[in-house]
Amino acid sequence: MEAAKYIDGDKGVADTKAALDGARYILMERFAEDAALLAKVRDYLWKNAHLVATVVSGKEEEGAKFRDYFDHHEPIANVPSHRALAMFRGRNEGILQLSLNADPQFDEPPKESYCEQIIMDHLGLRLNNAPADSWRKGVVSWTWRIKVLMHLETELMGTVRERAEDEAINVFARNLHDLLMAAPAGLRRPARHDGP
């Protein structure tokens, strides 16, 4: 086995498991820092993923005002600003949990996300029933779940929040402008009423 060559107790690599774990961490970091790979996965997620809101267990009564979002999902790229801000407010108040569903086309989460296939294609990784294929597939899966998904979920939710806040500011500015530019009551005297 290839990993046996890297066993060295002086370097903290006591056995083949330690060697493979170390290699997995190195590859995971390398893959997670590949800008071109992240761009491909980000693009796929922005076009296909859903923003999912669920109620935190036991918070149903306390969070009644967020009831519309207790079991809510919609394409992340199309979330209207008012809904996005409501969901983020629910999360900040500890009522809602927000996550990204990378594979909304499935009723149940699949064993393998399509994003794992994007990663494998980007790396030119083909599985041919070789002895190390299971380990390679595990590295890709682990990289996706532990590094790439978490990073891009945070980034894309930040993008949604920023867009929603910008839109809210623009709506407020337009409304304020309309209010300030509206014709005043002018020289008209208000009607006077003296009697019962």
TrEMBL record:
Q: Known InterPro entries for this protein?
A: Tex-like_central_region (IPR055179), Tex-like_dom_sf (IPR023323)
**Listed Pfam families:** Tex_central_region (PF22706)
Q: Domain Tex-like central region: where?
A: 2-172
Name the chain's protein: Transcription accessory protein (S1 RNA-binding domain)
Please report the organism this UniProt entry assigns to the protein. Salmonella enterica subsp. enterica serovar Uganda str. R8-3404
Lineage from the top down? Bacteria, Pseudomonadati, Pseudomonadota, Gammaproteobacteria, Enterobacterales
